[in-house]
Amino acid sequence: MVRNAILADPTLTLRDSAGVVLRTNDDWASGDDAAIIAAAAVSGGAFPLNNGSKDSAMLIMLAPGAYTVVLAGRETTPPGSASSKSTTVDP
User: Model's pTM, two decimal places?
Assistant: First the structure.
């Protein structure tokens, strides 16, 4: 097993306080909102997302409350390390 490898194909799942899945993402550029996500990443101070990368990202308007973001690898992805960042972006 390779230690300290980067998670090659991460997925994101957003859940509300009851555990209901609100949104999932795998490969940020594959969604209809890819251009909006790319612009928000730059305006929010995050690193730019490369087109065609396996990074996961989502942009969603949420009401105040408790939420959980699950960052995981796909079933076929070897284990590895990943990090996540939540950023507030003005609409």
Answer: 0.80
